[in-house]
Amino acid sequence: MQNDYSYYQESNQFNLRGIALSGLISLFAALLLGYFYTILTLLIPLIYVMVFITIGLGFVMGLIVKFSIKLCHIRHQQSKLGLAIASGLFANYFQWAAFLAYVFLGSFPSFTDYLSHLGWIFSPKEFFMVIHEINKSGMWSLFGVQVNGLLLAIIWIFEFAIILAVPILMVFQTTVYPYSEKLGKWYKKYTLFDDFEPIFSTQQMIPALQTDALSAIKNLQPGSGWRYSKIHILYLEEEENQYLSIEKFYIENRGAGKKNQEMLINNLSIDKRTADLIMKNFKHKRENFDVF
Questions:
Q1: Which member of 8, 86, 198, 278 has the greatest number of CB atoms within 10 A?
Q2: φ and ψ at residue 197, rounded to 5 degrees
């Protein structure tokens, strides 16, 4: 199906300036978050709470990377992955720098103290030697047992992996939006107000959209309150090619449970005249991109 019809494909164009700016945004965010993350884990040294705090750090870093990708107009897939990896590494390093500042000072470091200990990156051998010494003695206990050695190393590895993996997974799940290489800007997203019937066969719907999209949409029945489809138009007035996406929504327990959504048709190419007709015949609203 994907080979028979035209869909938007990212240009994969390399944007060095945008990548550099996005990297700086992640670096600055990790600098701040690494400090506050360490303070939180020291104030709340409960293993099950620390797991959620660690996931939270990775999640926030993932949001920042996704935001910076849109802000800096990045369409290069390898660059997106590289930025996600860099953000996880930044966050890991800065939280360790804050922790080592705490170890050396014997008390919660001020932000100034924290900044003065960032130079560990230029002395990696000493950095890992200190970590090794901490690992041998341990810094806290669990159920009355001193946590050190292999057990502590495993905990640290899991912490490192979570902070690194969450931004990567989030970037992989980022919704692709059309971008005009000619104009240097993203298409605008409009959503039709109507809730349409759930679409179960895209093999039938896509040919109908390609033949006469306006009629195909008009022929759809209204959706129910707990099972319906939403139609989005990705539109840029100066471009001839426009795009159409359809999402299916399903609320469990007939509207009383969890809301699930699935992208059925993503960025199907339509011409400008067709997009204009759809937007003229249906009420619609401008939406922000699903960056977050």
A1: 278
A2: -60, 150
Confidence class for position 292, pLDDT limits 50, 70, 90 = very low
Angle between helices 149-172 and 124-137 (to 10 degrees): 120
pLDDT (tens digit per residue) in 55-101: 999 999 999 999 999 999 999 999 999 999 999 999 999 999 999 99
Q: How far apart are CA 151 and CA 136, in angstroms?
A: 11
- Name residue 146's beta-bridge partners: 141
Between CA 52 and CA 58 the distance in angstroms is 10
Cα first-last separation, the chain:
30
Residue 267 region by backbone torsions, left for phi larger than 0, else alpha for psi between -120 and 50, else beta: left
pLDDT in tens, 269-287: 999 999 999 999 999 999 8
Q: What does the DSSP assignment read for 34-52?
A: HHHHHHHHHH---HHHHHH
The C-alpha angle 53, 83, 132, rounded to 5 degrees, equals 55
DSSP 220: S
Return the structure tokens found at 7. 């869909």
